[in-house]
Amino acid sequence: MTKLKTALTALMLSATALMVVAPPAAAQGTVIMVIDEGRIVAESKAGKDMFTKLKNIETQINTELKPTLDALEAERQALATRLDGKTREAIAADAALVKQIGDFQKKSEEFAQKRTMLSQEYAATEQKSFIDFNTALEPVMLEVVKEKNAQVVLSKSQAVFTADTVDATASVVAKLDQKTPAITVVRQRAPAPK
User: pLDDT tens across 39-81, in order?
Assistant: First the structure.
């Protein structure tokens, strides 16, 4: 069977399943609500605020790393100039050059460790921010569910088809904007090395 026929068959089966499930749900008065989580985060004041603060923290981290990165690059270029045209034996015979290479490698390793630590700090900050966002979102979601008298809430990304009439994303964004226009984003710090 071709891919097109397979896709069409799957689509027809999905549509048939919806037709079979939809009438009993309607007969029972089940109210279904759909939300688009991506839109809620991207369009809400709290989501925009959170992303702005996370971007500022990312910029701050990059600013912290830049002087060391620039110094390492300058040192790498200086070493490349000193090493140009030298054999391994000539390098090994130059104790000062061997020490300079060793010092550069040590600084590079320390920088890599610092960059990894700061990357972990950023990931922890981002994770904490999303937890705080979801904590602020939960009561708003429950309020919209209650207002719409919904018994089922689906993620738009998981649904095959949703009518605009069941999409409550705009309502959730509006209520979240009223109740939580900003999210506190605090840079998480890694514990000091022992």
Answer: 999 999 999 999 999 999 999 999 999 999 999 999 999 999 9
Distances (CA, A) of 186 to 54, 81, 121, 127: 9, 44, 11, 11
Name which of 130, 140, 137, 134 is nearest 185 in CA terms.
Answer: 130
Calpha distance 183→49 (Å, rounded): 7
Q: What is the pTM of this model?
A: 0.76
Bridge partner residues of 91 (DSSP): none
Q: Which CATH code of 3.20.20.150, 3.30.450.40, 3.40.50.620, 3.30.910.20 fits the domain covering 29-179?
A: 3.30.910.20
On the 0-12 / 13-18 / 19+ scale of CB atoms within 10 A, 99 is: exposed
Instruction: Map residue 167 onto helix, strand or coil.
Output: strand
Q: How confident is the model at residue 190 (pLDDT cuts 50, 70, 90)?
A: confident
* Range with the poorest average pLDDT among 138-142, 152-156, 176-180: 152-156
Bridge partners, residue 152, by sequence: 32
Question: How confident is residue 194, by pLDDT bands cut at 50, 70 and 90?
Answer: low
Q: Give dist(CA 102, CA 77) in Å, integer.
A: 15
Residue ranges per structural domain of the chain: 29-179
